[in-house]
Write a structure and sequence with these properties.
The complex is a heterodimer of chains A (191) and B (382).
Chain A: H1 3-7, H2 11-19, H3 23-45, H4 48-64, H5 75-91, H6 97-105, H7 113-130, H8 135-145, H9 151-158, H10 162-179, H11 183-186
Helix pairs in contact in A: 2-3, 3-4, 3-5, 4-5, 5-7, 8-10, 9-10
Chain B: H1 3-15, H2 20-36, H3 45-63, H4 67-77, E1 86-88, H5 91-97, H6 101-111, E2 119-120, E3 122-125, E4 131-134, E5 140-144, E6 147-150, E7 173-178, E8 182-187, E9 193-196, E10 200-205, E11 214-225, E12 234-238, E13 241-245, E14 249-254, E15 261-267, E16 270-274, E17 277-281, E18 286-290, E19 293-297, H7 302-305, E20 312-318, H8 319-329, E21 333-336, E22 345-351, H9 356-364, E23 370-374, E24 377-381
Helix pairs in contact in B: 1-2, 3-5
Classes of the chains: A mainly alpha (191), B alpha+beta (382).
């Protein structure tokens, strides 16, 4: 198939090809979505260097974890990834001061449907990211972070010691730290 | 919402421990901020494109874990060389080094008088010697014994009665010629489609004979999509080579100033005749002919071979080969103040719509080569 042919391919079939390791299909997806993905990162961070870091991480991650996702469209997914990644920059105050000013002036949030849909997507995305963890580790981490169980409750449920639970969570956080990319930005805030 | 609170929510979002409500708050403020000041829209189109190309290169280099193939292919070419050096053009590293794109843009305008890329265009030489310039707004023409039209249906020479291709057409030949910096396509009377790269010439009959072979002659580079016709094989002649085809997609590069003539098969099957050699090609194979020697290379990167047709350069070759491509597309001469090492292979990919400085910068990032532009001449320096 020539590159020209990829241009007329549907998103769904491109994604299937990417899952098979087809780099030209990946290239076509890059061409289709880069502007919106980068634009989102830049609109949030307003810094080309940070935006490049994030966007590169996302596309590389998307390729390297192609066995893990199952998608028929990917723009929303990539944008969710951007919004997830920017959190770390905000946490580290690597964002313009007017972001906080704008937030301070914003009125009360109302939970509309679109927002809740986005929340679900972000939650799912975070789950994909942690699904790389070893089974036991993931189980414990999920119980702890998403079901809000205490270490004691987890220990009781899985019939293991509290110390093991703590250790597994530490491992999970360490793995996550590696996986979420850009180690240098993430390094110090988990502990 | 206060700054400290927002920061701690963002921290929990990024470590994957935020509650649903916190995620909602986080997204709410993010979306609001983006909606208030969408600054990306103000970034000039040219910078957007530059960033996109930079990142493409960076991302593909990051996921590209197969430099071994490049080494292997290089060894095919020069069997005596034990360790060919493969330089991946990690352009982005250097782009990142000059963190501010505004700055790098400014730097370029100061240092390099730039040269615009090639564009659509060609001329058509008719049998009677008449030369027609083809519109650069169109991308190709269509040959029909009754009418000469652009591929969007408009007439090449408006307001003429039937056609310029009048009279006894049988056996009449036409030549489509692209100069340096031009590219064009043509649909032949049998439905075969041919894309011509810069600095090329295709000679073909207005109508093919009803029997026997369909013969065209090529110098330069072209991509063929041959209409299937088992009773009339399609034959591409270039210099000492002939390609015999039934119906298929392939690319021929036969520039007179290149040592190697390369024919690459994408689909179907073709037979290559050169001197005493004859060989069938399978898809993904490339026949390389120099003097009387023919060599078949397997597992060719097809995307690279047809990159020109799809609007970009994709390199995986030495500097001299790359400079030849640049010379043809940007219509420039190249002068060498150093002798580039032919074993040094550059990899990279960039749009053909960019000015020449973009591509030269990409090459400079390996640190060993520099360029000066003087008028329409590019000087390769240390």
């Amino acid at each position: 198939m020539s590159t020209e042919d990829y241009k007329s391919e549907t998103e769904e079939s491109l994604l299937l090809s990417v899952k098979d390791g087809d780099r030209s299909a990946f290239d076509e997806l890059y061409t289709r979505h880069w502007t919106v993905v980068y634009g989102m990162a830049y609109n949030i961070l307003r810094d080309h260097q940070y935006s490049k870091d994030i966007v590169q991480d996302i596309f590389v991650w998307f390729w390297e974890h192609r066995g893990q996702w199952n998608l028929t469209t990917c723009r929303g997914y990539l944008l969710t990834a951007v919004k997830f990644k920017t959190a770390n920059f905000i946490r580290a105050s690597k964002i313009r001061e007017d972001f906080f000013k704008s937030a301070a002036q914003r009125e009360q949030m109302n939970y509309d449907q679109n927002l809740m849909l986005e929340v679900k997507e972000l939650e799912q995305f975070i789950h994909t990211v942690i699904s790389d963890l070893p089974d036991r580790c993931r189980q414990i981490f999920t119980l702890s972070r998403f079901k809000h169980c205490s270490n004691k409750e987890i220990a009781a449920e899985l019939n293991i010691s509290e110390k093991t639970v703590e250790m597994q969570i530490t491992i999970a956080l360490k793995k996550l730290r590696e996986k979420l990319g850009n180690g240098h930005v993430l390094l110090y805030f988990f502990i | 919402m206060q700054k400290t609170e927002l920061i701690s929510i963002a921290a929990r979002v990024s470590e994957g421990t935020a509650s649903e409500q916190e995620l909602a708050l986080y997204l709410y403020h993010l979306n609001g901020y983006v909606k208030e000041f969408p600054v990306w829209e103000e970034v000039p189109q040219s910078l957007q494109e530059e960033l996109q190309d930079q990142q493409r290169l960076a991302i593909f280099n990051a996921i590209d874990k197969t430099p071994a193939i490049q080494v292997k292919r290089t060894l095919h070419l020069w069997p005596g060389i034990a360790a060919a050096v493969v330089l991946l053009l990690l352009g982005f590293l250097y782009f990142n080094r000059s963190a501010d794109p505004e700055l790098s843009r400014e730097k370029r305008t100061v240092h390099l008088p730039d040269i615009a890329p090639g564009q659509n265009g060609a001329s058509l030489q008719l049998a009677e010697g008449k030369l027609i310039d083809l519109s650069s707004v169109k991308t190709g023409i269509s040959i029909d014994p009754s009418k000469l039209s652009y591929n969007d249906g408009s007439a090449v020479i408006p307001h003429t009665s039937s056609s310029v291709l009048t009279g006894d057409l049988a056996g009449k030949h036409v030549q489509m010629i692209t100069g340096r910096g031009q590219t064009y396509s043509v649909s032949l009377s049998d439905g075969t489609k041919v894309w011509l790269n810069a600095g090329s010439k295709l000679d073909f009959p207005v109508v093919f004979a009803k029997k026997g072979q369909r013969i065209v002659e090529l110098s330069g580079e072209a991509y063929f999509q041959v209409a299937k016709d088992n009773s009339r094989p399609f034959l591409v002649r270039s210099n000492a080579q002939q390609v015999i085809v039934l119906g298929t997609h392939f690319n021929v590069s036969a520039y007179k100033n290149e040592k190697l003539m390369k024919t690459t098969l994408l689909e179907g099957s073709v037979k290559i005749l050169a001197g005493e050699h004859a060989r069938m090609l399978k898809p993904g194979e490339q026949a390389r002919i120099s003097d009387q020697h023919m060599e078949i290379i397997e597992n060719i990167d097809l995307d690279e071979v047809v990159a020109w047709k799809n609007g970009y350069f994709k390199f995986n070759e030495n500097l001299e080969e790359i400079m030849n491509k640049i010379s043809r597309w940007y219509n420039v001469d190249v002068e060498y103040q150093i002798k580039p090492d032919p074993r040094l292979v550059f990899s990279g990919r960039i749009s053909r719509k960019r000015n020449v400085s973009g591509i030269l910068k990409m090459l400079e990032y390996n640190g060993d080569v520099h360029f000066k532009i003087e008028g329409r001449k590019i000087i390769v320096t240390k």
